[in-house]
Amino acid sequence: MKPITDKIIVSGPCSAESREQVLQTAEGLAAQGVTAFRAGLWKPRTRPGCFEGVGAEGLEWLAEARNAYGMRIATELNTARNADLLLKAGVDIVWIGARTATNPFDVQDIANALRGCHIDVYVKNPVAPDPALWLGAIERIERAGIKGRIVAIHRGFCTWEKDIFRNNPIWSIPMQLKAQRPDVPVVCDPSHIAGQAELVPHVARMAISLGMDGLFVESHCNPSAALSDAAQQLTPDEAGRMFRNLKLTE
Ligand code: PEP
Ligand code: MN
Q1: Ligand 1 atom nearest 191 alpha carbon
Q2: Domains and CATH numbers, the chain
Q3: Which atom number of ligand 1 is nearest to the Cα of residue 124?
Q4: Cα dihedral sign, 241-243-245-248
Q5: How far apart are CA 155 and CA 134, in angstroms?
Q6: Is the CB of 40 under 6 A from ligand 1?
Q7: pLDDT over threshold 80, residue 143
Q8: Measured from the CB, is residue 155 less than 6 Å from ligand 1?
Q9: CB of 217 closer than 6 A to ligand 1?
Q10: Residue 77: phi, psi to the nearest 5?
Q11: Which atom of ligand 1 lies closest to the CA of 43?
Q12: Among 197, 196, 205, which residue's Cα sits nearest to residue 247?
């Protein structure tokens, strides 16, 4: 199994939970042609008392996955305070979460902490459907002169009116961003849009048919036992089947 397009594919569990879970998921995804592996270390939970991530301890597991399977590794940079830690660990990609992306002070602190560094920065859309706020976050990272790729992620928006989706996609917003900034790839995170595994392939198909530049997908070796976002994670085999069906891998 190997990638057959220049679309971006990043996949891995919502959270790093244990060394075994990280390595088993990475092995499964590598076998499906995935070359960039995501796992959250610090989790932005809506209410306290839930699993909040393993923190810095998980960095060793990610490094092991990179060494064992040759994958690039990605994690959420939740605060500028953790930037050095991730840079020293050689993380290839950091993403800015949807909650962080709403706060220009936090985004600016992160931009300052990454100034001039060789790292890819993926910027999720802010939770509120505010296209200028999303673009502004991208511009703050850009102005810090990052020597890596800047990518936008459409992960849907919080709305009071509940649809079938966990976070409603508003496709016109990423499409408008692509039109305004054709130099910034825009990928879709169908997992946080869908909120349930069965819907993920449908959202992913929509994104690819609209010409989006790739997928950022949650996958776990044992989704029902996941400590966060259990309902929306695909097994590596299911994720692999989805990528093949979308002709992103063969
Ligand atoms: C995640 O990717 O696991 C995550 C917490 O995403 P978001 O910031 O989009 O909610
Ligand atoms: Mn998640």
Answers
A1: 2
A2: 8-245 (3.20.20.70)
A3: 9
A4: negative
A5: 12
A6: yes
A7: yes
A8: yes
A9: no
A10: -90, 100
A11: 5
A12: 205
